[in-house]
Amino acid sequence: MIKFFEKEPYSPVEYSYEAERILYKGKTKYQDIMVIENNTFGKILILDGIVQLTEKDEFFYHEMLTHIVMHSHHAPKRVAVIGGGDGGTVREVLKHQGVEKLYFVEIDEEVIKIAREFFPSLSSGLDDPRVQIKVMDGAEFIKRTDDLDIIIVDSTDIIGFARTLFTIDFFQSAKKSMNNRGMLVTHTESLHFHKEIVIEMQEMLKKVFPVVDLYTTPIATYPGNWWTFSIGGTDIDPRTINRHCEIKTRYYDSEIHLQSFLTKGFYRKLINRELDW
Amino acid sequence: MIKFFEKEPYSPVEYSYEAERILYKGKTKYQDIMVIENNTFGKILILDGIVQLTEKDEFFYHEMLTHIVMHSHHAPKRVAVIGGGDGGTVREVLKHQGVEKLYFVEIDEEVIKIAREFFPSLSSGLDDPRVQIKVMDGAEFIKRTDDLDIIIVDSTDIIGFARTLFTIDFFQSAKKSMNNRGMLVTHTESLHFHKEIVIEMQEMLKKVFPVVDLYTTPIATYPGNWWTFSIGGTDIDPRTINRHCEIKTRYYDSEIHLQSFLTKGFYRKLINRELDW
After folding, report:
1. Does residue A170 sit in helix, strand or coil?
2. Is B13 on the interface with A (CB under 8 A)?
3. Dihedral of the alpha carbons of B176, B179, B182, B186, in degrees to the nearest 10
4. E-strand stretches of chain A
5. Phi, psi of B36 (to 5 degrees)
């Protein structure tokens, strides 16, 4: 039995997992990739020493990243998924029949290969005719694209090379690449462990987008767990479900949609710097 | 710098913390006690190798354990706190002016001493005239007591010697010790990591109490994080706030009260064994 210690660079708690087997270990131009097998979580994808997903609980993250904006937007047809080489977010977006074009933009082709080999339940949608795979930097793609309805940023942690997806420049290009009802959603770390990053991202989005909001989901395998997702949009209120569609999800439902947004209480005050914690 | 590895016996993820200093290390008749200092969390109380609380985030647990039942009950006057030697739950109960008698029942007197020495912000209420400290087994105390409005079980993990507080016998004595509007609340571990325990406790409570419910709170320093609290009562709906009182809390508020109960969705189905996860 090998023990895997997560190298999460700014978590005050270190997480470690028993690895029954190491199924893959490699190095790409961008990052180290490892796939381990764990008795509870099944296969775990690890990039640069940080757990990206586990088979057991990936649906919390992928469903909640995807379906909030996809249900509040009235008719999402042109969608871009930036990052998320595992394919989990693409799988969720494709559940929406109205989607006509899905740009899947991943900088590291190796991650896609690994996902196809070890995580078929996530990468299952990658060959859908609506999907166009672009192996390139998401920030560059966004600069050359327009008329997007939805942009979903499914990146690695905000530090590291994904940082270009969390800058005012990127958010401004993202806004330009959208049509007049566009919405962007991105994960923004944990309010428990990375409060300053969450606040910084909310403030950055407010400089660019008229509508900015934040919602949360518990994800047991991300340090801090109480994970945040930030939305920037032009005019649609993400708390309103404007499109009721019969899609199959495990965790997401209309009630969770509404409950996942931060209340006016502790967390909201925290984000508005109205209290110190 | 010493690294502290938590000995949580049934968590699939091991948590570890940097200990700037070990402030106390001792052994009582019942358990090992350790107090460490951590840069992020401040002082951390550890019993039998398991983190019980940190100065940084203890208020999530103590407020949510206490104020749900204390706000749904119409007039809680006689309250028993079983366990919770640190005093955090007592501190929260005492915020309610209507409380006339608070039995504080802790089996391990050493924990109370350690709390008075190292955690004054938690143990501050222990000398309040309404508090009667009983150093004894909570199950024994409950058998000899009656006319309680509220029983709050603030125990260590369900395994180990606290197990006597999570049996059908205990819940039956608890019901006998209450008056006809009584309510009991107890933590019941994490739905992410200890699903079977949560379900077992809910089913046990349903054998004894007419009204059984479950709510959750994110607690970053308890493995699994998505922590559950189970309620057993005679007739009061814990989702209804029957008493509005101006008390000072950091996390709990009326909106969080209502949002913390499990929805009809994923988690509720999980508890009702309507889906497999």
Report:
1. helix
2. yes
3. -40
4. 2-5, 14-19, 21-27, 32-38, 42-47, 50-54, 78-83, 101-105, 131-134, 148-154, 178-190, 211-218, 226-233
5. -120, 160
In order, the DSSP letters of chain B are: -EEEEP--TT-SSEEEEEESEEEEEEE-SS-EEEEEEETTTEEEEEETTEEEEETTTHHHHHHHHHHHHHHHSS---EEEEEE-TTSHHHHHHTTSTT--EEEEE-S-HHHHHHHHHH-HHHHTTTT-TTEEEE-S-HHHHHHT---EEEEEEE-S-SSGGGGGGGSHHHHHHHHHHEEEEEEEEEEEEETTT-HHHHHHHHHHHHHH-SEEEEEEEE-TTSTT-EEEEEEEESS--TTS---------SS--HHHHHHTB--SSHHHHHHTT-S--
Cα Rg for chain A, rounded, in angstroms? Answer: 18
CB contact under 8 A, A251 and B263: no
Determine whether the interchain pair A263/B251 forms a contact, defined as Cβ–Cβ distance below 8 Å. Answer: no
Q: Which of B4, B51, B72 is nearest to B261 (CA)?
A: B72
Write out chain B residues lying below 8 Å of A15, CB-based. 13-15
Is the ipTM value over 0.85, yes or no? Answer: yes
- State which fold the A2-54 domain adopts: Spermidine Synthase; Chain: A, domain 2 (2.30.140)
Catalytic residue among B108, B154, B157, B213: B154
Annotated catalytic, A154? yes
Whether A258 has its CB under 8 Å from any CB of chain B: the answer is no
* pLDDT exceeds cutoff 90 at B213: yes
Determine contact, residues A229/A65, Cβ cutoff 8 Å.
yes
For B217-264, the pLDDT digits (tens) are 999 999 989 999 999 999 999 999 999 888 999 999 999 999 899 878
Q: Is the pLDDT of residue A7 over 90?
A: no
Residue A199: pLDDT over 90: yes
Active-site residue among A154, A169, A213, A276?
A154
CB contact under 8 A, B12 and A41: yes
Are the C-beta atoms of B243 and B73 separated by less than 8 Å?
Answer: yes
* B178-190 and B226-233 strand pairing: antiparallel
Query: Where do the CATH 2.30.140.10 domains begin and end in chain B?
Result: 2-54
DSSP letter, residue A261: B
Give B38's contacts in chain A (Cβ within 8 Å).
12
CATH 3.40.630.10 holds for B58-271: no
Indicate the DSSP class of residue A223.
T
CA of A258 vs chain B CAs: smallest distance (Å): 10
Which has the closest alpha carbon to B76: B62, B96, B91?
B96
